[in-house]
């Protein structure tokens, strides 16, 4: 479910880049607003599918003056491999202990929310588009999407109710367009 956040400060956390360096989150939104996408486990076909959608629309995000970053719950090497495998042009960061997931209160699900029969058809469609991955990480972890302005405030977020739910690109762009005057203030 998406909503405009009441300008909650983004947590003061650091992520691990693909070279293994610790990067304060504040460096990622200091110049331009940031779309921060938290992935589920590394084998999640829905997440791979969504990462491909973000890539397909990356130039559009750039035109809207939004940077994009993806967070996985793996190690730096896995972040590098994930980025290379999908040929992503935006950075992928690691959060091996899920401390940043917890700081952002990224939701966790139950078996029904991550693998219930009502998700199987969407899973099959995502599987045909993106292939199968090897599940690795917290299989109950859901994804999360956050839009952070240059003042470090979370101004919009999307918290899914199931593993198949992600915000549409249009939904993200509408939120980004309402953000522009705030970010430039």
Structural features, described:
The chain is of the alpha/beta class. The chain has helices at 25-29, 45-56, 58-63, 76-86, 99-103, 111-115, 120-130, 169-184; strands spanning 2-9, 14-16, 22-24, 34-38, 67-72, 92-94, 144-148, 153-158. It has a 6-stranded mixed β-sheet. Strands 2-3 form a two-stranded antiparallel sheet. Helix 2 packs across helix 7. It is globular, with a radius of gyration of 15 Å. The two termini are 28 Å apart.
SSE order and pairing:
Layout: E1 2-9, E2 14-16, E3 22-24, H1 25-29, E4 34-38, H2 45-56, H3 58-63, E5 67-72, H4 76-86, E6 92-94, H5 99-103, H6 111-115, H7 120-130, E7 144-148, E8 153-158, H8 169-184
Parallel strand pairs: 4-5, 5-6
Antiparallel strand pairs: 1-8, 2-3, 4-7, 7-8
Helix pairs in contact: 2-7
Order of helices and strands: EEEHEHHEHEHHHEEH
- Number of contiguous helices: 8
**Would you report the number of β strands?**
8
Question: Which spans have pLDDT < 50 for at least 5 consecutive residues?
Answer: 181-185
Largest sheet: 6 strands, mixed
Give the averaged pLDDT, no decimals.
86
Strand content: 15-25%
Arrangement of strands in the largest sheet: 1-8-7-4-5-6
Shape: globular
Structural class: alpha/beta
Attribute tags:
8 helices, 185 residues, two-stranded antiparallel ribbon, alpha/beta, 8 strands, six-stranded mixed β-sheet
